[in-house]
Amino acid sequence: AQTVTQSQPEMSVQEAETVTLSCTYDTSESDYYLFWYKQPPSRQMILVIRQEAYKQQNATENRFSVNFQKAAKSFSLKISDSQLGDAAMYFCAYVGQGGSEKLVFGKGTKLTVNP
Amino acid sequence: DVKVTQSSRYLVKRTGEKVFLECVQDMDHENMFWYRQDPGLGLRLIYFSYDVKMKEKGDIPEGYSVSREKKERFSLILESASTNQTSMYLCASSLPHRGSPLHFGNGTRLTVT
User: Fold this and answer.
1) Could you count the other beta carbons within 10 Å of the beta carbon of residue A110?
2) I want to staple B67 with a disulfide (CB 3.0 to 4.6 A). Which of B17, B32, B75, B81 is the partner?
3) pLDDT at B42 over 80
4) Contact B90 A46 (CB under 8 A)
5) B106–A107: do the CB atoms touch at under 8 Å?
6) For residue range B52-67, what is the model confidence (pLDDT) as tens digits?
7) Is B31 exposed, middle or buried, given 0-12, 13-18 or 19+ CB atoms closer than 10 A?
8) Cβ of B42 and A97 within 8 Å?
């Protein structure tokens, strides 16, 4: 079964600085999708960014970008120019080919942004 | 924008009660999901539905059942609530494609006493 590991339960960053959240996954599949979701305190979980495994180019959404290393099975999220509103739980997620759209989530990283 | 609405934000129930958690989405999504979120454990899938009356067990289905009689509504049922089912429950919906993002509700925090 596929697993997703987020090795940093908590991270902190100074406002305006850059932070990288780590995610590794275990799979034998070659075609899959990876996601980062953000859950602000007491608020709804939302999609931050998505990466298709067959695409070499790293996905980017404004201040959010990923470093996708397929061979290493690594999918880290970089947040540039951190803002107070970036403080949240961040979850990495994987969905593979296996005939179902069920995502597997990591345990999450709590990001604190210090003013 | 897709809206996923969970009927209760907070719920307190007694051990042994039958509990219904309701979820409605307004974007005609085929897929609907129920996740349980616990600190340090992330999100764990309870049940997944890919069409009306169709369901698949997730990773932790024990003690839960689901109902999907209409496309827009997906209910999670705790047949006999127990204290270890105290948790945050998240409903989500998506289009029937692996790359489609999940759209989440605000969550229901259930306390079983």
Assistant:
1) 16
2) B75
3) yes
4) no
5) no
6) 999 999 999 999 999 9
7) buried
8) no
* pLDDT for position B67: 97
Of A32, A47, A101, the CB nearest to B96: A101
Three-state DSSP state, B82: coil
What's the CA gap between B91 and B107, in Å, rounded? 7
Which residues on chain B are in Cβ contact (under 8 Å) with A108? Answer: 42
Residue type for A75, please?
Answer: F
C-alpha dihedral (B73, B76, B79, B83), degrees to nearest 10 = -150
Across the interface, of A50, A52, A106, the residue whose CB is closest to B101 is A50
Indicate the average pLDDT of chain B.
94
Pairwise CA distance, residues A68 & A52, whole Å: 10
Q: State the pLDDT at residue B99.
A: 87
Confidence check: pLDDT of A52 > 80: yes
Nearest CB to B42 within list A44, A101, A107:
A107
Residue B59's nearest CA partner among A1, A70, A26, A62 is A1
